[in-house]
Every structure is written in structure tokens, then in C-alpha cells.
Specification:
The protein is an alpha+beta fold and about 300 residues long. It has one domain. About 30% of the residues lie in helices and about 20% in strands. Strand 3 and strand 4 form a beta hairpin. The two termini are about 20 Å apart.
């Protein structure tokens, strides 16, 4: 599918077109850097935007789609930390049968989606429809399981999972606020920069062909242990609006680089000859239709 056609599908789905990646076609070709204009669709943070702790107080009694709606409103208004506004390159090498090696570089946010500023923020879980809406409106996609593994392998900071008791409160705002503080304490102990690629602290909401046979579900994967093995294998057990404290939203730019050349990531995911480089399941045909099922 061509870039224009896919953009039109996203416009129909979410009421906007991801203009940023389209402008990156003549941008940086080095796999060591991601073009700055990939972030063009991302709004600036308002001067009087809420701090993360204040936002948590406001949504303390909310859950599910009602809470998601408030998170989406904040994020699309630009209320998220500056350290998330730098994309980190992650390169995957794949050799097709009988062919030459192919390097595909994706550009990802250094940490999971959060609300607030650099000094006071909270990482926010979202249900699948809200996560997909945030991603596409800002020119991003959700990752695949293969991307999640590559992000962990190449992360500058790897945090050990910090599970909380599996109670009925797992989906509560208080739970993810407390877990956020635990994760931030872990990160600070590493002395690593906020904008460093960080992994291991959350499970990812991912794109998967399984969502075709499991409509109305969310696909989650990851939460890698220090040995590199994920706690959570790919799962579609939960409904699409489910989100607990362990879930995170990692954003991947719709522009990737194939052997240094900028390419539209949805095209790569739909191309049987290239998709295995970024997806363990191979191609995701008719990606627009898959996104349609998660609205």
C-alpha cells in the first residue's frame, strides 16, 4: 500500500493524517540517527500543562475508557515529557533466503508514554484503541514483538521487572502511579539519562496478526528479565480496553530506514519480502483493516 493510501485510511480511522513521516523522505540516511522532522506532528508542551502528580490526582477515581480519554486528551495537547521527544534508532539485521543482509532501523521513543514534565511525570497504561489513536495521530505505530526484543537488546538502560501483587486493584490509577515511582527509583539508581533508551520496566502493547482471529482483544508482550527472556509471551487474553500497571505504550515512527534509505514502516510491515526483518510473524497484510478492528 502506498503512503498516501495508508494515510487516507488513518484519516478515516482517527480523523487525522500522519504528516510527519511523509516529510522525512529526504532526511537523515545514517542508521545512527533518526531524522528530527519525524517529530514534526508532535505538539509542544503547553507552558501551564499539568504535572504528572497533579494529573494522577485528577484521574484517581477513573478507570478504563474514561481514564484513557483523559490521558489521550493530555498527550494530544502536548503534555508529556521533553525526554520523550528524542527518537532513538534501533537496527535489526535480517538475511532473506539466498539474499544479502538487510538492515532495518526503526526510530523509537526512549521510554514509555507518560503525562507531565521531565521533573514530574507518570508513565500511563492505555487500552489498545486509545494507544493506537495516540500513536497514529502523532505519526507513530505500536511495535511488534520482534521490535520489542530488539529494543531490549539495544537498550542503554535495562531495568529488572518490578511486579506488584496481582490483585483486583491492578487496573487502578493508584497502582500504576506507585509502580511508576518504583520504576523511576530504579532508573535513577542506574545514573542513566532520562532520554537514554530504556527497557525492561513494562510490557508492551503490540501489533500482531493474532488480533485478526481475536477481534476485541489487546496483544501484549515483553517485560524482559535480566536474562533477556520476557515474563509475558505474546498474549491476547484481555479485552481491548484492558490496561493494568504493567502495560506501557512504546511509540515507533512510521518512517524507518532500509539499508539507510527512508521507507514507510507500514509498507515494510505489509511487504512479505521485508516484513520478517521487523516482525516475527512475517507480513501484516492490509494493516489498515487490522487497525480498523481495534477501534
Amino acid at each position: 500500500m502506498k503512503q498516501v493510501a495508508f494515510a487516507a485510511c488513518l484519516l478515516a480511522l482517527f480523523g487525522t493524517s500522519p504528516s510527519g513521516p511523509a516529510k522525512a523522505a529526504g532526511a537523515v540516511r545514517s542508521p545512527e540517527a533518526c531524522a528530527p522532522d519525524l517529530l514534526d506532528p508532535v505538539p509542544e508542551r503547553p507552558a501551564r500543562a499539568r504535572a504528572g502528580s497533579a494529573f494522577v490526582e485528577e484521574i484517581q477515581r477513573l478507570a478504563g475508557p474514561a481514564r484513557d480519554a483523559e490521558v489521550v486528551k493530555q498527550v494530544l495537547a502536548g503534555n508529556f515529557p521533553d525526554f520523550l521527544r528524542r527518537l532513538i534508532p534501533v537496527t535489526m539485521r535480517w538475511t532473506p533466503p539466498g539474499g544479502a543482509p538487510i538492515d532495518v532501523t526503526i526510530c523509537v521513543t526512549p521510554d514509555y508514554l507518560a503525562v507531565g514534565g521531565d521533573g514530574d511525570f507518570v508513565r500511563v497504561p492505555l487500552g489498545l484503541p486509545a494507544a493506537a489513536a495516540v500513536a497514529t495521530r502523532m505519526g507513530f505505530l505500536l511495535p511488534t514483538t520482534k521490535m520489542v526484543d530488539a529494543i531490549y537488546d539495544q537498550a542503554q538502560i535495562r531495568l529488572a521487572p518490578a511486579p506488584m501483587p496481582p490483585t483486583a486493584a491492578m487496573e487502578s490509577t493508584d497502582y500504576f502511579w506507585r509502580h511508576n515511582r518504583t520504576v523511576e527509583d530504579q532508573r535513577i539508581q542506574t545514573s542513566g539519562a532520562q532520554a537514554a533508551l530504556t527497557a525492561g520496566q513494562k510490557k508492551d502493547i503490540v501489533l500482531s496478526n493474532r488480533l485478526r482471529s481475536k477481534p476485541g482483544r489487546v496483544a501484549i508482550y515483553g517485560w524482559h528479565r535480566p536474562n533477556g527472556k520476557p515474563i509475558q509471551p505474546l498474549s491476547t487474553v484481555h479485552g481491548k480496553n484492558y490496561a493494568d500497571y504493567s502495560h506501557g505504550v512504546r511509540l515507533v515512527s512510521m518512517t524507518a530506514y532500509v539499508n539507510g534509505e527512508p521507507r514507510w514502516l507500514p509498507d515494510i510491515l505489509q511487504d512479505p519480502s521485508l516484513a520478517p526483518s521487523v516482525n516475527s510473524e512475517g507480513a501484516i497484510p492490509h494493516l489498515d483493516r487490522l487497525l480498523d478492528t481495534i477501534r
